[in-house]
């Protein structure tokens, strides 16, 4: 096995989600467990990265609720990967990045970024 991850990746926590999902509560429960793990021993969670719509399998994540939970738990920043949601969902009031090369048939170099001034 080749392990070559750099420090920031080694410190990350991946949240496994059950599939198929029976309710949004399953996602909320797993996120809360992961945040608790990340905050263990007096540590803090500096960044949460959340997919808005996962790629495989396709699941719409209720990111507004998760962002609220992250804020309540003291997460420094929340980044939403909204690549698959362009044209499907409105812009969230948070930091998100989208790309339109799949949905709008644009060039690969045509991403867009949204940053709420409150962040």
TrEMBL record:
The keyword Transcription regulation belongs to this UniProt entry's keyword annotation: no
Record keywords: Pyridoxal phosphate, Transferase
InterPro entries: PyrdxlP-dep_Trfase, PyrdxlP-dep_Trfase_major
GO molecular function, one term: transferase activity
SUPFAM superfamilies: PLP-dependent transferases (SSF53383)
Protein's UniProt name: Putative pyridoxal phosphate-dependent transferase
Organism, scientific name: Rosa chinensis (China rose)
């Amino acid at each position: 096995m080749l392990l070559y991850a750099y420090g920031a990746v080694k410190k990350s926590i991946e949240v496994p989600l059950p599939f198929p999902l029976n309710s949004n509560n399953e996602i909320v429960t797993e996120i809360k467990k992961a945040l608790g793990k990340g905050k263990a021993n007096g540590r803090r969670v500096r960044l949460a990265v959340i997919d808005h719509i996962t790629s495989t399998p396709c699941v719409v994540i209720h990111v507004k609720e998760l962002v609220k939970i992250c804020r309540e738990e003291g997460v420094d920043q929340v980044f939403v990967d909204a690549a698959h949601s362009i044209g499907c969902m409105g812009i969230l009031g948070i930091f998100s990045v989208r790309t339109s090369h799949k949905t709008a048939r644009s060039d690969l170099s045509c991403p867009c970024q949204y940053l709420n001034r409150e962040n």
